[in-house]
Design brief:
The N terminus is likely disordered. The chain has three domains: about 70 residues; about 140 residues, no CATH class; about 220 residues, MetI-like fold (Orthogonal Bundle). The chain is mostly helical. It is built from 16 helices and three strands. It is about 65% helix and about 5% strand. It starts with a helix and ends with a helix. It has a three-stranded antiparallel β-sheet. α1 crosses α16 and α12 packs antiparallel against α13.
């Protein structure tokens, strides 16, 4: 009896098992279209997110470029200047009244202007830098005294904005920064070919100024350069040495765990905290000069060190253990293994992390504001101890100015800063692709 029943039971179980499997496959097949539709929707959502991000990025760049490209062009006017010996009769030519030469040239061009108010309005159309330009010409070439020469000098920022179409002529005279008389004088200059737009070299060769047409970024660029040099000279060796010790030599115990946790936490600390730390230690305690690239470099070193340490440790961890084992197997010491085998292989990754850290330091503003690098600096810094500002801080200063011409220069400085940052990050990518090894 039992022998007859057992095969039937087994066959029924087999049949039931097959039918259950068949039902599972059917359920899976029925759900496949829904899963595929969900995947397609997710893919579309991702594509839409990328497109929206690119659209906002393009809008940002279009806005910055649209506002800033005009700063690379400056409007000039031709003045027929007579270097009158009576005006330049001072014993020291550097202290002569060169502004009188500008006024005399304008008066000879518009002899009908006689009232004091009109003379003041006419003189205001030319930049204050015209007098300094004539001074430089006379100091370089004293034989100009007693002669006449056509000199192209920059116009005032308001007239420059008029020439670039940023001032609406249709507005009432009281609602614009250029009077009707100045409009007439400008039109007369333009009709006679006395107005030209030229590349604004001053923007790249001059320091900061209260006058927009005379303001430049050279001082800020020099300050950023000195600051980054200090940061690189301190942060790279200290950061790499710390990473090598923690990864290759430090014992794994509670204290090293505390150090590692604190390094990771410091990488997420707001940058202004490092500025407060630098103000308290480097300036108030050690008495270092305020607004100096040396102090700025020290502060940015504190901020950049965690980034370099983390990137360097990740690069050391990417070196296969077989490299270490092979070196130790042929008799190399631990120090020789690290210095001659592991460190050269990890160096490209360390350099990439350092360059990215330098790019982050270049774009920082908050810590530099705390140590006084927000000061108005006209002179170009020549050393690490000279008062200086940085390019991001210069952008911050100009953004707070109400003049329309400073809006142009703010956007133009942002473009220069973005170009430098893109170049630095591009260098990091090139180094990574050139020297990176895949194991």
């Amino acid at each position: 009896m039992s022998d007859d029943v057992s095969p039937n039971n087994g066959s029924r179980q087999t049949a039931n098992g097959r039918s259950a499997t068949g039902r599972s496959i059917d359920i899976v097949r029925q759900g496949l279209p829904r899963r595929y539709r969900a995947e397609r929707r997710f893919r579309r959502y991702g594509q839409i997110a990328v497109a929206v991000s690119l659209a906002f990025l393009a809008l940002l760049f279009v806005s910055i470029i649209g506002k800033g490209y005009g700063a690379f062009v400056q409007t000039f006017v031709r003045l027929d200047v007579h270097f009158d010996p009576e005006i330049l009769q001072a014993e020291d030519l550097s202290s002569a009244n060169y502004q009188a030469l500008v006024k005399a040239s304008l008066q000879s061009r518009f002899p009908q202007v006689t009232s004091r108010q009109e003379k003041r309005a006419l003189g205001a159309m030319v930049s204050d830098g015209a007098a300094f330009q004539l001074r430089s010409m006379v100091l370089e070439e004293p034989e100009l005294i007693g002669t006449s020469r056509a000199v192209w000098v920059p116009l005032d920022d308001d007239i420059d904005m008029l020439a670039k179409g940023h001032i609406d002529r249709r507005l009432p005279e009281g609602d614009r920064r250029v009077s009707d008389r100045q409009l007439a004088w400008f039109d007369e200059w333009q009709a006679q070919g006395y107005i030209e737009k030229r590349f604004n070299r001053t923007f790249f060769t001059a320091g900061d100024s209260r006058e927009p047409e005379l303001a430049g970024i050279r001082g800020a660029m020099a300050g950023s350069f000195f600051t980054l040099v200090v940061t690189l000279l301190l942060a790279f060796p200290v950061g790499v040495a710390t990473a090598v010790y923690l990864e290759e030599f430090a014992p794994k115990n509670r204290w090293t765990d505390v150090v590692e946790v604190n390094i990771n936490n410091l990488a997420a600390v707001p940058s202004i905290v490092f500025g407060l730390l630098g103000l308290a230690i480097f300036i108030n305690f050690f008495g270092l000069p305020r607004s100096a690239p040396l102090v700025g470099g020290l502060v940015l070193t504190l901020m950049t060190l965690p980034v370099i340490i983390i990137a360097s440790r990740a690069s050391l961890q990417s070196v296969p253990p077989s490299i270490r084992e092979a070196a130790l197997g042929v008799g190399a010491s631990k120090m020789q293994t690290v210095l001659h085998h592991v460190f050269p292989l990890a160096l490209p990754g360390m350099l990439t992390g350092t360059i990215i850290g330098m790019a982050r330091a270049l774009g920082e503003t908050a810590p530099l504001l705390m140590i006084g690098m927000v000061a108005f600096i006209v002179d170009i810094p020549k050393s690490f101890l000279d008062p200086a500002t940085a390019l991001p801080v210069q952008v911050y200063l100009w953004a707070d100015s109400p003049e329309r011409a400073f809006v142009e220069r703010t956007s133009a400085a942002i473009l220069v800063l973005l170009a430098v940052l893109i170049a630095i990050n591009l260098l990091a990518v090139i180094l990574r692709n050139r020297f990176e090894r895949r194991w």
